[in-house]
Design brief:
The complex is a heterodimer of chains A (about 140) and B (about 325). Helix content of chain A is about 45%, strand content about 5%. By secondary structure, chain A is mostly helical. Chain A has a two-stranded antiparallel sheet with strand order 1-2. The longest helix of chain B is centred in the N-terminal third of the chain and has 28 residues, at about 30-55. Chain B has helices at about 5-25, 30-55, 90-100, 105, 125-145, 155-165, 175-195, 195-200, 205-225, 230-240, 255-270, 275-280, 285, 310-325; strands at about 110-115, 115-120. Chain B has 2 domains: about 5-10 and about 65-250 and about 280-300, Fumarate Reductase Cytochrome B subunit; about 300-330, no CATH class. Chain B has a two-stranded antiparallel sheet with strand order 1-2. The chains are: A mainly alpha (about 140), B mainly alpha (about 325). Chains A and B meet through α1, α2, α4 and α6 of A and α2, α6 and α10 of B.
Chain lengths: ~140, ~325
């Protein structure tokens, strides 16, 4: 790189290219300008508050509920087993509609808040919209 | 065993250990979660611009395009419009083919000798996996905007739908992540197992590959296997880009490894061969029209040499030349 030379060749094109680069690379900074970063607040229904404990502990449910639901689906559909026993030795009906959505019946204030925040669009709801009960 | 790739592998492993131990054991979450990312982005942006400006200051006085087809000459001879471009449009098309489709890698052939015959074999694997690697990386980067933008822009959601169209498992499989890891591993194995490629490979070739593989694998781990609290992760990343950084609870050590490796990549970027991202646009062998036969290109810093043309010479000595009987162009 010549250090003594100050002339920028093809100045217009180079600067235009650099501007495009900086604008694209800093997209998150200007897109979120003036917004707060706070995570969404979840609202629990009275029933969920009364139950106190979910199927598993809260952090596990936060991180891995989707995997649990996936296991449930496979177990019910493939093995026809419907009872899930958790680490507290309590049994639950493996059903999104009958178990999960029974307490968490407020999809807009519960499920959707985090899903929208992290741009998750699960196709569970394509079928499981029949809260509270599906036919047994 | 080869010292060149072992060096890079050990370097990446040390970086992984450093960030994991630093964030988990030493509790330096602020350092790895806030300080390093800001430093990395600053170095990346400033380094990138500095590098491009340096290249833009390097003079290219003459046309030096690599000619990959027939040059434009006489009007009745057809010429290669994009492989030896003569017009600006030709150059733009050539650059587009190069940047978007890796035209020059597509030209790759394998040279073999069979008895007394020399054979150029069709060799498209490098082109295919290079293309796969770069596009998978691009999709992965754009997908990650879901952590850096609130609300998540429509094109990110659209891309996620396309990327996860197989609807495999929960969380749904993103093809780009798998393609990125697979293609990077292919490019690494190619350097390790082909003797002639291994011979010309340096630690600076292996290091980015190991680094990117580690980034992809740690990302895949977090999404599909060990799990992190995604909402907390977004709180952290969004805090960074809104200049209100926080370290939320419940973000695992693997996340700090992932982010630290990305930061290392950003810091390493401007000082390495990864700068081909900007460099491809600056390469004179691609971005100049091949018009030396039609246009005279004068070196701009030519020293102003004092010339004495024949006309001036004859003007000065015409009398003496005529006297001596030498032929002159203009009559005395």
């Amino acid at each position: 790189m010549p250090s003594n030379n100050q002339k920028l060749y093809d100045k217009d094109k180079v600067i235009a290219g650099l501007v495009i680069f900086v604008v694209l690379a800093t997209f998150p900074f200007w897109y979120n300008l003036g917004k707060a970063a706070s995570a969404p607040e979840l609202e629990l229904t009275d029933k969920a508050k009364a139950a106190e404990k979910c199927v598993r502990d809260t952090q596990y449910m936060r991180n891995e509920h989707m995997q649990l639901l996936d296991e449930w689906r496979d177990t019910v559909v493939r093995d026809a087993k419907r009872i899930y026993v958790n680490e507290r030795n309590m049994g639950y009906d493996m059903s999104l509609s009958n178990t999960c959505l029974d307490c968490h019946s407020n999809k807009e204030q519960f499920c959707d808040r985090c899903h929208n925040y992290t741009s998750v669009n699960p196709y569970c709801w394509d079928c499981h919209i029949d809260n509270p009960k599906e036919a047994k | 065993m080869n010292v060149k790739y072992m060096f890079s592998l050990v370097a990446v492993l040390l970086l992984i250990l450093l960030s994991y131990a630093g964030a988990e054991a030493a509790g330096m979450k602020t350092f790895f979660g806030i300080f390093i990312p800001y430093i990395a982005v600053a170095i990346f942006l400033i380094g990138f611009i500095w590098k491009i400006v340096g290249w833009a200051k390097s003079p290219v006085p003459f046309r030096i395009p690599s000619t990959c087809g027939q040059q434009k000459s006489l009007p009745w001879m057809s010429y290669s419009y994009t492989d030896s471009p003569y017009t600006k449009t030709g150059v733009v098309l050539r650059m587009a083919l190069e940047v978007l489709l890796f035209r020059s890698l597509f030209r790759n052939t394998k040279f073999e000798q069979h008895g007394d015959r020399l054979i150029y074999r069709w060799e498209k694997w490098l082109w295919l996996f290079a293309l796969l690697f770069h596009y998978a990386f691009l999709v992965t980067v754009i997908r990650h905007l879901r952590f850096f933008a609130e609300p998540v822009p429509f094109f990110v959601q659209w891309l996620e739908g396309l990327d996860g169209f197989l609807q495999l498992g929960l969380p749904g499989l993103f093809l780009s992540g798998v393609a990125l890891a697979a293609a990077a591993i292919f490019l690494l194995l190619r350097r390790m197992y082909l003797a002639e490629i291994r011979y010309i490979s340096l630690p600076s070739d292996y290091f980015p590959l190991f680094l990117i593989i580690a980034i992809a694998v740690s990302g895949i781990m977090m999404r599909y296997f060990t799990k992190v609290d995604v909402v907390a992760v977004k709180e952290l990343t969004l805090g960074l880009v809104t200049f209100g950084p926080t370290i939320p609870e419940g973000v695992g050590g693997l996340f700090y490894v992932h982010m630290f490796l990305v930061c290392v990549l950003l810091i390493y970027f401007p000082f390495s061969k990864l700068m081909h991202l900007g460099g491809v646009f600056m390469s004179p062998t691609r971005n100049l029209p091949n018009n030396s036969r039609a246009v005279r290109h004068v070196n701009p810093w030519n020293y102003p040499v004092k010339v004495h043309t024949y006309e001036e010479y004859e003007e000065e000595f015409r009398d003496k030349m005529v006297e001596a009987g030498l032929p002159v162009e203009k009559g005395a």
